[in-house]
């Protein structure tokens, strides 16, 4: 063997060993990538689930709000329960916010006097209880700036009992799909001192305000000097809905049957929006009533208009039912 061969052999062997080492390293990296990819896919089975792919739960959940308290945890004060409310929930892994309407439950929670608060214990308790009855996690994370701004501008009565701290805390959101479509949405958060939970069982809003007929309007005017009507307008507009026009037809009947009757038409709103905006809107809606009566042949000289905005509420503005009652038109006999 010549000297050239003596030097080439180690180099060849070294190159072979190096190539083999590189291949082994690449295989290990690929295995790691596959494992990591599988972990992501497994996680996304939870976070990427859509309404159509989430399995329906037929578990017997008992009575609303369905979930009791974990051991050594109590309500900080009396929970808020409403027959109908609208609350925003993050409904996918990106935190897309959706307004869910239905029966609601909200409460803050703290530890009992003989125990220390544990954030992991609180979260794990509800996570396992929800999943045990077929619930699926929709979102877990902190809200981004855009989400926080959206909530500040659109969410109702932030800061009351059971409000989540979406400024600072991680939000956990779940859904339990039900056979009849009355799906249950749950979201909660916690810090080092306590937690909060919100539950909504989805349900369509049921209108409980019926159209007052002409004979009742006339009776109220004669006995009370005024009548209160709930005339339907488009949201934040003075354009009448079909059912709103039906109410005005009843007013026209009264005016036609009583040729000397003159009415002051007073518009009112709920407290959503600014005072200035509400004042303008209430006056525009009262004027829309006059314009509609005019198309029915009523002389506008018999009618006067005034807007009061959100003044003189007749119901609680913190509930959807109350706000619906405050959005009204009052006819005052002149």
TrEMBL record:
UniProt xrefs under SUPFAM superfamilies: OmpA-like
Region (Disordered) location: 309-334
Keyword Electron transport recorded: no
Gene3D superfamilies: OmpA-like domain (3.30.1330.60)
InterPro entries: Bact_OuterMem_StrucFunc (IPR050330), OMP_bac (IPR006664), OmpA-like (IPR006665), OmpA-like_sf (IPR036737)
Signal sequence residues: 1-19
Biased amino acid composition, Basic and acidic residues: 322-334
UniProt-annotated location(s): Cell outer membrane
Pfam families linked: OmpA (PF00691)
Keyword Signal attached: yes
Domain spans labelled OmpA-like: 224-334
Keywords, in A-Z order: Cell outer membrane, Membrane, Signal
Positions with biased composition (Polar residues): 309-320
PANTHER family, sorted: LIPOPROTEIN YIAD-RELATED, STATOR ELEMENT OF FLAGELLAR MOTOR COMPLEX
Full protein name: OmpA family protein
């Amino acid at each position: 063997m010549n000297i050239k061969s003596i030097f080439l052999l180690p180099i060849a062997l070294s190159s072979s060993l190096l190539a083999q080492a590189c291949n082994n390293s690449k295989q290990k990296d690929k295995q790691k990538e596959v494992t990591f990819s599988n972990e992501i896919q497994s996680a996304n089975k939870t976070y990427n689930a859509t309404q159509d792919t989430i399995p329906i739960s037929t578990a017997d959940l008992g009575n609303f709000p369905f979930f009791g308290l974990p051991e050594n945890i109590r309500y900080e004060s009396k929970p808020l329960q409403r027959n109908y409310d609208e609350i925003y929930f993050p409904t996918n892994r990106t935190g897309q916010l959706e307004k869910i309407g239905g029966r609601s439950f909200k409460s803050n929670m703290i530890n009992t006097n003989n125990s220390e608060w544990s954030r992991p214990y609180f979260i794990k308790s509800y996570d396992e209880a929800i999943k045990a009855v077929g619930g699926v996690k929709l979102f877990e994370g902190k809200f981004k700036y855009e989400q926080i701004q959206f909530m500040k501008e659109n969410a109702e009565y932030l800061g009351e009992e059971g409000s989540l701290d979406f400024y600072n805390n991680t939000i956990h959101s779940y859904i339990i799909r039900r056979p009849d479509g009355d799906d249950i949405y749950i979201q909660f958060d916690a810090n080092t001192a306590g937690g909060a939970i919100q539950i909504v069982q989805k349900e369509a809003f049921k209108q409980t305000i019926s159209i007052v007929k002409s004979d009742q309007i006339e009776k109220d005017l004669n006995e009370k000097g005024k009548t209160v009507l709930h005339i339907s307008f488009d949201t934040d507009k003075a354009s009448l809905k079909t059912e709103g026009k039906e109410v005005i037809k009843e007013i026209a009947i009264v005016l036609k049957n009583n040729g000397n009757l003159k009415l002051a038409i007073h518009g009112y709103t709920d407290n959503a929006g600014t005072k200035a905006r509400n004042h303008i809107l209430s006056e525009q809606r009262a004027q829309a009533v006059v314009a509609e009566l005019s198309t029915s042949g009523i002389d506008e000289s018999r009618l006067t208009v005034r807007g009061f905005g959100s003044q003189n509420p007749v119901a609680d503005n913190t509930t959807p039912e109350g706000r619906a009652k405050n959005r009204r038109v009052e006819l005052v006999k002149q």
